[in-house]
User: Which sequence fits this backbone?
């Protein structure tokens, strides 16, 4: 087994174990910190796919931003000082159905999709192709993304308005 | 391209080695006291007995700052590919990006007007 | 991962190809293994031979520089001029008891220094020391540096939470909010340079500049000039440096997120802080000051590498000195001023810089751009001259005698 394959399985295992930690931890703060491992592992898997820009963006936005936001949110929670605060397990059968449906969709995508296999990765930055796509073929979704971000800003103000006034 | 990332993995590992080496060195060579553990283990509050829970709630402002950060961070990441191909795109690329930045600038102005950037 | 032998492996490529050649001394060894070992050795030399000593020596030099600025002496007993003070401090902390408070969360408490130190050391993977002296010249170099800073934020929050102390938690949250806020103006200030070069690779950005100041991006146009200052101030704030060291405001928060830390673990946080000063200098040098570019005086590869290394180090360390100078001079800002400065001043200015540079590139022809660059270089030189004239003027007006001040740095 070559080194790169070994590294791939190491990162994949790390991602899955961290994700299990997020799901099964009794303490919501532990769950939030375990997300760090999952997000990091996913960024590493992007690197293995040759998508270095996406890996960098994943690291910057998810670890540097979303994870910090989640941690802030967790630490703002009521009763957080009690220690073992976590979501109660409720609605077992319904959850089972939901998980089954998601697994079915994912499995279908896994086996139906045509995965292009390339022998040698293209040399040179991958960012050029993304930039051409953003400002060429996908320019409308790109501009719409700014409206989504604007909506997030307005929503954040509305949600925290009451607290800000007092 | 990918073999460059071996260097990154190694650097991460070396960072961990620094901490591991220094902390275990301190465990081996460091002083070990058996007496008065209880005093040392106390929460440090300048010598006073600790009062109240340590993990109180804090201002919602911090949460708002984190949301602001994510919105602008996503904008920054969206702008990187644009910045890289800008030389080839010229004026059309400039106009497309100005639209994008203008919408975000409007968002910043809105947040500013609503007083969310004030900190009291 | 290493299947393609022709893909670049940074400085190691030629050496590894020679070693594993059909006639090379290590022809029996697999290419991957040799490449791995070579990179490991080079990385270890950089981290243990450069990062740790620089962080330590900076801690000693900083105290000496403050002392000179404030008419004190500073540490001067251990070794010549106190030069070995950093080793003595390290040894002292090694001998300290390793305390994990009983109220703290032991796992997270122990894990937090790892995240902070890894987040800081990892940036050195792409810091270029010379044309061939870099561990990994990633295509996304500058994005990678801004991204791994995220580990520091998470580590600081983890330290604050795990300590189970009011000041630790408040310091950790303040610190995280400050770092993420100032990441926006810092990130936006990278764009003028990326627009001009069309790449994120640190080496390519340096290669797009020249050794002469009028080829630096600092003097390219007024917007890059402004972006340089925005970036440096934002980077100081990201590094928790005065005047933005609120997370460690000792009169309010004792020691911020590291209140409960002691001994070696405490030292590790400060190792990252001092070492981070050099990282700030290195990024500023790369983006705006031509990096390791040197005048063409030698062709010899080793001499050239040494010359480049010295140039890069001198430029980067100049900014470490400026950060010390700022810390010895300016008082701390308040938390409201901190946030207002970031969101109401620096973010709009940084956005204007991005848009301005883009418009400049479309509108201004090359010949005019060259004239502007030379004019801005002359203007920059004039600013330096005016600065020294002001200093001399004030020294004269203060009517100090020779006994009141002396220029020797040593006591």
Assistant:
């Amino acid at each position: 087994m070559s080194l790169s394959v070994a590294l791939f399985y190491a990162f994949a295992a790390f991602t899955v174990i961290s994700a299990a930690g997020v799901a099964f931890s009794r303490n919501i703060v532990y769950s939030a910190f375990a997300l760090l491992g999952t997000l990091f592992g996913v960024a590493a898997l992007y690197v293995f796919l040759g998508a270095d820009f996406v890996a960098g963006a994943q690291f910057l936005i998810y670890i540097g931003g979303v994870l910090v936001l989640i941690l802030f949110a967790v630490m703002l929670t009521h009763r957080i000082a009690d220690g073992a605060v976590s979501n109660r397990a409720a609605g077992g059968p319904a959850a089972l159905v939901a998980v089954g449906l998601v697994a079915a969709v994912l499995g279908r995508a896994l086996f139906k999709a045509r995965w292009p296999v390339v022998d040698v990765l293209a040399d040179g930055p991958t960012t050029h192709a993304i930039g051409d796509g953003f400002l060429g073929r996908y320019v409308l979704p790109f501009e719409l993304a700014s409206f989504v971000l604007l909506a997030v800003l307005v929503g954040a103000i509305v949600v925290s308005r009451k607290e800000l006034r007092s | 391209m990918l073999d460059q990332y071996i260097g990154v993995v190694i650097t991460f590992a070396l960072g961990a080695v620094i901490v591991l080496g220094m902390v275990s060195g301190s465990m081996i060579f460091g002083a070990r006291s058996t007496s008065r553990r209880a005093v040392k283990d106390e929460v440090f509050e300048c010598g006073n007995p600790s009062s109240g829970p340590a993990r109180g709630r804090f201002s919602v402002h911090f949460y708002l700052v984190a949301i602001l950060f994510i919105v602008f961070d996503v904008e920054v990441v969206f702008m990187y590919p644009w910045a890289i191909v800008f030389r080839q795109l010229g004026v059309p690329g400039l106009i497309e990006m100005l639209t994008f930045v203008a919408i975000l600038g409007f968002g910043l102005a809105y947040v500013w007007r609503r007083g969310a950037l004030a900190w009291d | 991962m290493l299947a393609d032998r022709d893909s670049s492996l940074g400085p190691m490529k030629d050496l590894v190809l020679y070693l594993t050649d059909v006639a090379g001394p290590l022809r029996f060894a697999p290419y991957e293994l040799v490449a791995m070992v070579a990179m490991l050795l080079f990385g270890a030399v950089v981290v243990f031979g450069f990062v740790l000593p620089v962080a330590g020596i900076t801690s000693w030099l900083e105290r000496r520089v403050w002392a000179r600025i404030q008419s004190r002496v500073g540490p001067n007993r251990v070794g010549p001029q106190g030069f070995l003070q950093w080793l003595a401090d390290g040894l002292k902390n090694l001998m300290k008891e390793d305390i994990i408070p009983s109220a703290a969360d032991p796992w997270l408490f122990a894990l937090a220094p790892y995240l902070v130190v890894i987040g800081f050391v990892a940036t050195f993977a792409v810091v270029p020391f010379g044309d061939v002296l870099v561990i990994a010249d990633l295509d996304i170099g500058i994005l990678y540096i801004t991204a791994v800073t995220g580990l520091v934020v998470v580590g600081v929050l983890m330290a604050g939470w795990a300590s189970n102390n009011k000041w630790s938690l408040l310091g950790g949250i303040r610190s995280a909010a400050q770092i993420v806020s100032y990441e926006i103006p810092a990130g936006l200030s990278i764009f003028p340079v990326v627009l001009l070069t069309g790449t994120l690779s640190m080496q390519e950005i340096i290669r797009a500049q020249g050794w002469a100041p009028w080829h630096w991006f600092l003097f390219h146009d007024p917007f890059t000039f402004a972006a340089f200052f925005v970036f440096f101030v934002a980077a100081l704030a990201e590094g928790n440096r005065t005047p933005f060291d609120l997370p460690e405001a000792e009169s309010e928060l004792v020691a911020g997120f590291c209140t409960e830390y002691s001994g070696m673990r405490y030292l590790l946080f400060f190792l990252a802080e001092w070492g981070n000063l050099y990282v700030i200098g290195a990024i500023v040098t790369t983006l705006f000051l031509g990096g390791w570019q040197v005048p063409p005086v030698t062709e010899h590869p080793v001499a050239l590498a040494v010359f480049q290394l010295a140039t890069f180090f001198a430029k980067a360390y100049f900014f470490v000195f400026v950060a010390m100078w700022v810390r010895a001079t300016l008082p701390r800002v308040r938390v409201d001023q901190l946030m207002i400065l970031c969101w109401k001043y620096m973010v709009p200015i940084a956005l204007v810089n991005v848009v301005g540079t883009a418009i400049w590139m479309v509108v201004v022809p090359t010949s005019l751009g060259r004239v502007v660059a030379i004019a801005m270089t002359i203007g920059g030189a004039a600013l330096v001259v005016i600065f020294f004239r002001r200093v001399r003027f004030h020294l004269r007006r203060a009517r100090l005698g020779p006994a009141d001040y002396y220029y020797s740095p040593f006591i």
DSSP finds four helices and no strands in chain B. The two ends of chain B are 49 Å apart (CA to CA).
